[in-house]
Design a protein that fits this description.
The chain contains no helices and 11 strands. With about 100 residues, it is an all-beta fold. β1 and β2 (about 15-20) form a beta hairpin. It is elongated.
Length: about 100
């Protein structure tokens, strides 16, 4: 997984995070059950975040539905709106934008 980002100063500050994740093995997801990928250290989300759909190389019928999300304590998750089987070697790219304050 490759995470990059920046905290833009302000009141509140804004976290802008880019995510590129390559899944090594196949896995299954459960509908609306987040899969924890990483955690922002030292920051807490204070309001609604922008969760853009992932660009992925998965089954055509599942494209455009999955997102990366961020929780109030800074956890970065992968979220699908249905049960899915994701193949080995899949890539997932997306971004998050969220208002944050120091934790």
């Amino acid at each position: 997984m490759y995470l990059s980002g920046a905290i833009l100063p302000g009141s509140p500050s804004i976290a802008v995070i880019s995510i590129v994740w390559f899944s090594r093995g196949a896995f299954s997801t459960r509908s609306w059950t987040p899969i924890l990928l990483a955690r922002m250290v030292g920051w807490k989300v204070t309001g609604a975040a922008v969760h853009a759909p992932c660009a992925e190389n998965i089954n055509y019928s599942d494209l455009g539905a999955n997102t990366f999300t961020v929780g109030t304590t800074g956890e970065i998750n992968y979220l699908t709106p249905g049960n899915m089987n994701i193949g080995a070697g899949s890539w997932h790219r997306g971004c998050l934008i969220a208002p944050v304050v120091p934790a």
